[in-house]
Structures are given as structure tokens and as C-alpha cells.
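> Could you send the YitT family protein prediction when you get a chance?

Sure thing. Input:
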Amino acid sequence: MKHIALIVIGTLSIALATTLLAMPNQIADGGIVGLSLILYYAFGISPGIVTFLIFVALIGVSVKYLPRHMVYKTLTNVPLLSLFIYLTENLGQPIGDPIVAAIFAGLFIGIGFGLIIQAGSSIGGTSIIALIFNQRFGWDVVLMTFILDGLIVLAGVFVIGPLYTMYTVIALFIGKVASDYVLSGFDAKKAVNIVSLKSLEIQKKITEEMGSSATVFKGYGVYTEEDRKVVYVVLRSQRILYLKRLIMEMDPEAFVVVHNVKDVFGGTFFATPAIEHTIALSSETNDDEGVYQEDPNE
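Output:
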């Protein structure tokens, strides 16, 4: 039931962004929706109907070349998307600022795609064509999808002009960022490698003052030709400044590398709510909010 709700909400988000923001302001898109919008701008054909007809044609071809489970993923989404677009395509009004329309169209389309992918489904479109080429000729799916989407966007130059095509590129970029946030979450993490002569003391401080755990690796310095202990810790982004201050207080010569972490799963990297609450209460006396992290290798 949750997955169905995500698909419906995601599809509705894409449809409304298309009809209320993109269509009235001459913004295009990639994939099936982008092609239907270009045909709408050129000939006034209903994008809802075009989206459905293109989808039926793609399904007819893909059934012959692709495994059934790949085809089934789009059987609900695209007809629903076509219906939502058809029902709302006359409701939009120009807002007077195409770049604002592009930003918010990209935002809501990206959120919609993220929700659909999170539900384990897909809109299909150019990715179906790319998969067919992959099955037939072994061509790279990601590259082919990018090329096909790029050709659709570039085709917009001849219909909506170069300026509005550039607005479309802005919308696509924002959509990609938005879908990434939906899939990976807003609770960003950082992974930190600490190389220091005082690695064990630093690790102890991290455990005691930050309520976090860590993994200690054995390392070897090529320049110094000496063994070193390397501390590896994963923590939430808002904790990184406190960690840096803690390290600098103990060893100003420490070598620290901070990585952006797209996702963390498996093991028990962060505490259960009850443990987090306990640590937060104990750390409030030190004017610092604690976050608990367990090493999955311990």
C-alpha cells in the first residue's frame, strides 16, 4: 500500500509540474514527457495523449526484447501519468518568469521521480529504448539514455528556442538533485579518516565526548616509513565541526580526510531513539548534542 501511495503521489507531482509550470512557460523536459511537450509546442497536440501513445509503442517493441519484469514496472505509472497530464493540461497559466518556472518544475519533477524509484517502479521512456539497444547491441544503458534525452532536449532549440532550452537544462539539473535527495535523504553523513600519532587517544575522545564509535585500521606511511593507526568514523554533517575542533586540540599535526557519504546502511551506525535520547541528555551538560554510532565490525 505504501508503494502504491508513493507511485500515485510521485506521478501526480510530475504531472502537475508539467502542466502547471512547464507547459504554460515553454519549458521542456527529457524522455517521453519532454518529447510530448515539444510536440505540443510545435503542433498543439495534447501531451497527455502523446505520452500514452508513445508509451504504447514502446511497450509493443519492448515486450519482444526485454524481460517481462522490466516492462511490468511501467505498466501502471505511464498510463497514470498520461491521465493526470490529460486532466490538468488546460489549468496552467504563465507566471511571468520562466526561470522560476524551470526551477520549480525541475524540483517537483525530481521529487516525483524520486518517490517512484523509491517505490521500486519506473517511468520508463528513453530508458526502455536504451535497454533494447543494450539487449540487441550491448550498448551502455546509462550512456544511451543520456544521449537520447540530450537529443530530445536539443530538439527543443528548433521549437522553443535556445533560451528556453537552457531553462530546460536548469530544470533537468534541479530535478536530478531533487531526486537524489529524495532517494538518499536530507540527513547527510560524513566519513572521516584521521591519521595521527595520537589516534587511539582521539578515538577515545570521540567515544566519550561525542557518543560515537569508530574503526581503527593499521596504516603505513610511505614517506615516514612508519606504522600509523587510522581512525575511521561516520557521523552526521552537523557534528563535523565539533570533531575537527576535538582533533585539533589533541593533535594539530593530524592528517584528516573528510568524505561525503551518499548513504549509510547495514549494521548499527547510529543509535536507536532510546540510546540517542540518553546520550543527548548526558551531553547537554557539556552544551553539546551527542550522536551515537556503533561500529558494524565490532
